[in-house]
Amino acid sequence: MIYIVIPVYNRREFTRNCLNALKDQTYLDFTTVVVDDGSTDGTEEMLAESFPDVKVLHEKGNLYWTAAVNIGIRFALSHGADHILTLNNDTIPAPNFMANMIAWSDRKPEALLCSFEYDIKTGRPCYGGELVNWTWASSRYLLDELAEDAHRGLHAVSLAPGRGLLVPRNVFKSIGLFDERHLPHYLSDFDFTCRAKRKGFEIFCNYDAKLFVYVEESGDKRILREKNFKNYCNHLFGIKGAGNLKNFSIYTVRNSPVHMIPFQLLIGYTKRILNYLYR
User: In this structure, are 128 and 154 located in the same domain?
Assistant: First the structure.
């Protein structure tokens, strides 16, 4: 039994488009759960009118990505989910997305599978997984290395984002949920998948599962659009800032080899402090 968990807060049309894409899947044996964190733009009414089969969990508007996803995961697990797919509402799964996720999950039932992402505006691949080099605080991005005819099947990766991530029930049983207390928004997905990998679970990017994403619509992308001191502070210290130094510190201390932590922190702080100014 597969449950899809989608956290939402406003952005009604993104949610509508995502759910319509799920209705158009060639494989439909799944249950969709939307965690609506107090939307004020008519999302609640739209869901009730257009998607009566979707399970909607209503919250009060004080959650971020991690806590909202965890609420959906707890609901799914309590209703017997074997696998849970976490999905963001600003994504559009290709019609055969779920079919190709299930086909590979049947062959790798204990593995975590993330999606092959395409920029919805350009139609070009934009993320296909990465291999982390902890020694040099860097990643090798598979899209930079793989020939186009290799853009199929599974490719092993070091970690995975939470948008379009299929997770077996046993992973949650082994390592728990995403860490909403310490990583309320960014990096909780990378932290979760790193913990899973250390427990022996394989992680793959599924190049047959195409997920179209609005690259410029993430919280931090909006912060980066307009350069000013307030946005610079939000980038480094705000909950929705991808450069959040506290979150990065927690993530690094947990997942970096112990002897590399000082170097990782130095490189990471430098990148985050300077990256906003550079971009």
Answer: yes
